[in-house]
Amino acid sequence: MTDIASLRPLAAVAVPALAAIAILASRSRPNVREGWTILAAASTFAVVASMVPGVLAGDTYVTSLGTFVPLGDGSVEFVLQADALGMLFGLLASFLWLVTSFYSIGYMRGLGEHAQTRYFASFAASVASAVGVAFASNLLVLFVFYELLTVATYPLVTHDETAEARAAGRKYLAYTFGGGVAVLAGTVLVYVLAGSIAFTPGGIEGLATADPMLARAAFALLVAGFGVKAALMPVHSWLPDAMVAPTPVSGLLHAVAVVKSGVFGIARVVLEVFGPDTVSNLGVGVPLAAVAAFTLLAASIIALRQDNLKRRLAYSTVSQLSYIVLGLGIGASMGGDAARYALIGGLLHIPAHAFMKLTLFFCAGAMHVETHTDDISDMAGIGKRMPLTMSAFAVAAAGMAGIPLVAGFVSKFYLLIGTASGGEVAFTVALLVSGVLNIAYFWPVVYQAFFESETADGHDRKPLIENPLGGRFAVAADGGNPNDGPNQQSSASGRPTADPDGEYAVDRNPSDHTRSGDVGDDASETVDSGHGEHTEHTDTHHDVDDHAHDHHHGGPPAGGWERRSWLGGEGSWFVVAPILTAATGSIILGVIPGRAVFLQLVEYIVSAATVVGVFA
Amino acid sequence: MNVDILFTHYNYIVVALLLTIGAYMLVETPNLVKKVIGMNVFQSGIFLFFITSAYRTGGSPPIVGHGGASTTYVSPLPHVLILTAIVVGVSLTAVALALIVRIYTEYGTLDERVLREVRADE
Amino acid sequence: MNELLPLLVAIPLVGAVASITLGSWSDRLAWPVTFLTMLVHVGLATAVASTVYRGGTPLATAVGGFTPPFGIELVVDGLNAAILVLVSAVAVGVLVYARRAGPHSVAFHTGYLLLVAGLSGMTITGDMFNLYVFLEITGLAAYALVATGDDGRAAVGALKYLLVGTVGASLFLIGIGYAFVATGTLNMADLAEKLATADPTLVGASFALVVTGLAVKTALFPLHTWQPEAYASAPDSVSGLIAALVSTVSAYALARVTFSVYTVDFLTSSAFAQEFLLGLAGISIVAGSLLAVMQTEIKRMLAYSSVSQFGLVVAGVAIANEAAVTGSLIHLVGHAVMKGGLFLAAGALAVVAGARTVEDYDGLGARAPLLSAAFAVLSLSMVGIPPAVGFVGKWYIALGAIQAESWPIAVVILVSTLLTLAYFLRLVERMYFRTSSDDVTSSTGTGATAVADGGDDTDDGLTRPSAGMVAVVVVAALLAVGLGPLVSTFEPLLEPTLETLLQL
Predict the structure, then answer these.
(1) Cα–Cα distance, C157 to C350 (Å, whole number)
(2) Residue C153 at interface with chain B, using a CB cutoff of 8 Å
(3) Considering its fold, how many domains does chain B have in total?
(4) Which domain holds residue B115?
(5) How close, in Å, is residue B54 to chain C by CA atoms?
(6) C448: β partners
(7) What are the pLDDT digits (tens) for C486-504?
């Protein structure tokens, strides 16, 4: 293992950061602006990918930026380093950013969204922070980027500028900064206890001998802090609310970058701050796994009763993230091969879930762009209208449930073997039950889309959603006030509730079918931008008024879904191609996991983390 | 309790009285000018405290040659300090009165309660 | 370099006289004279600071040739060299802003230089009574500056400031009296030696009075009552200057007196001294934030925010270990830049849109992109988003608190992030994610309020902020971010001083 001084880790962070500035600067020329996004995404991915062979060979790329907050003899080095664990997250975030960039362009233009410059700039800044999180070399640097990520994603959550978007934004910041405070407190505590906060495979030395109560407190603070973004219960409720954001944001950030930064933080804490050894000595791994197990079961059950597709996906995310945390928690508290399997399963689920969930969100977004359908109960027969999209959805959903040949199977398999062979059968059962629940909440969507008809008696009743305790009625599925969730569909008619402005959630953002397939034509964009941001805004609101008369809700048009071809007739290729890419990714990870780079990275990480421990 | 202390340290009693009276006026009177007077009384208490601290029983003015080398002198330093403090106090009073004049021309009152009512309507 | 120290006070004094003389001849000369004076001052301050940091030893000089402990001593060490440069640099920045924003009167410029003289004096003096005199000079100049607002509100605010400020200074003076009675000396270094062996009751009483007096000037809760009204009623340039410097230098004086006069030994050994400071700081942090959340007027909100932030600084002083004191100094400097910038930004935004209340900030992000962005950056830095300077200060103070294992204050310090977020978030949200309900403010009620609020935007007919004003705000925002990483070069320079101060 050698450290290679290189500017590449810095470049991976700096390129998207500079792109954010370039995007702001070229706000009046949408094509140039989108060009920057694509260029930055491609070059970020290229830079990160170029380090993969070295990292797999055991090297670490290091950019040192001098000291940060020095004090006396001790100081914290501001170093970015691309090690195996960082590479796992960095590679994932940068590759999926590239995919999402194309999708974003199709989605935002297809809907004629306002403030697109702010959107793309924040997106680039978010990715810069996410890559920074990946390549942080110690807890403080990680914290710096973790907080910047919160700030950069806030404009994306609040993008709609409606009352519910603002409420979601406030909730998001309150939760994540609350978590940030806990992380900071934990970081300081570790620094005081151990005299160092640099990530060390196998754990920081000083912590093993520190006062166990304080060490436990530090672990609790760090995990609770990162747990907020990882959406562990009971601090998960920002995530479903944040689904008010545009779908690419929900896709990349709220299924990949942001939530994974929380999970990644927990991984760093477990593997490289405390180390599996110390975690097991302190006895904190099993409680963590127990919280995760509770979360994954409870979130799956809640997901069953969500009628809004994005909200159901959000609860699915909450549930799936806990697979990873469970793997880490349980893996760190067992010994031998069982631990190794559990850790591999948990870490491998990071990319596996990312690919699958991104596919699912992209599909949800495509349906929104094309047909304004947000509710699952309106999706009967939609497979005719969007065949490719719904097929991709079916593949990814199968993967989520752990059906073989899709990515989710491999990671869940490792997790099951790990927990079962380690004797933690309770967790094995929890995983299996959750798998069944996954099928229960995804299958109806797929079944409806392909095998039911949108006509009045063409589909079955949905007892879980329509019954008094179902998601459509006044009892909120997450146990809170029925009005607290932005997308909570609580009216008895099953139609989206009007928000305070009298606009319907679905139609808040205007769309233009004639333009959706024609992204090259941005004449109207240019005109809008010419008037400055404010004018653009006013225009948008005019659109909303016009559209309110045309479409009051999603769902099938009066004559039923029209049948579109399988060859891309269902929408812009900017939207369809990313869906197919992400879906293909999920299959590749499921069919040939050994060839896809992620499993190799994960195996490398796990052996590095456990080789110095008792398991060696 | 030794009653003598009241008579030997009467200066300090006056200091305490001045400070209390000054502070009370400052807080209690609604009249702005009287507040400034209270502030002056408060400061006078401090001045007296410093001057008292300089005093030595049987001491003579600290002027060399006046009473011979063997005499006890009172400490000269606090006198000098208080001279400065008095100058500061006078400047403060001047600024305060200038502000009060402006408040009076603006609102036509020196009463804090009336002032509050007038400004609430603003 | 030693013999140049008195000039730090003398130059602005001479400049004040020059500006009033030349100004009475022609109004238009006042600003150039003031600016020139400040340029000389900033040059001298920088030279002094760089000598101190490069040499590693303090500079000291006895004024008028009277040797200490009898004469007055001026001392510049690592602690106050930074403050000195801060005072000078911020004063220059605000002056550039005031070029167009006003006030334009000669009296303003004279008062400005007197304030700088007082602040510089407070910063460099090594004598307790001299500190009192400079405290009062600073106070007098500040009262007068607050009153340069055109309306009655400014006069009322200034009078309240004067009454409370004078009581604070008087308490400080009594405290000095007790210390003098106990030791017979006023020189700080000499006091530090003699107080150690003096009657502990006298020393304790003296400490309590001095700290209370300075706490009034620093505006710690519950002694902050003068501050919101004074800041809110003063012209924008003045609130920027005072918010950035007056409380800062008072807090510095509190630190200086605690470490150089009463010493860390006293703080830790004597009963309740440390607890007293910690309690004051903790209550300030929490109460200041809560009061800030309740405000509707921007400048009052920022004023209460200062109450909270100075609680943080004093907490660092009270914890009194290397990390915490480093943090206090950094936060002192950082807060001055951030809060000064915020007040100036608020002033410039008031010029753009007549925005004086929280509601007025709706949709400002679109109307004044650069100013709003600067305001947002400064706010986020104040919240403590890394790597901005607001975070670095908080990191050190929190580190110090945890090292000292004083858990309650550590919790308060960390949670203060969320409290600060509570009052800044709503502004950022309104600026960027709401649209203004009425685009034409000048003819509506909001516009009228802005006039009544004592803004200077009406008296000289400014319709949009000048380039200079925007530039100053943007520079403040850049500094707020840029100073954070620079701390790593500054901290080693500070270490020798801290070792002396904290008797490590």
Answers:
(1) 20
(2) yes
(3) 1
(4) 4-121
(5) 9
(6) none
(7) 888 888 888 888 888 887 6
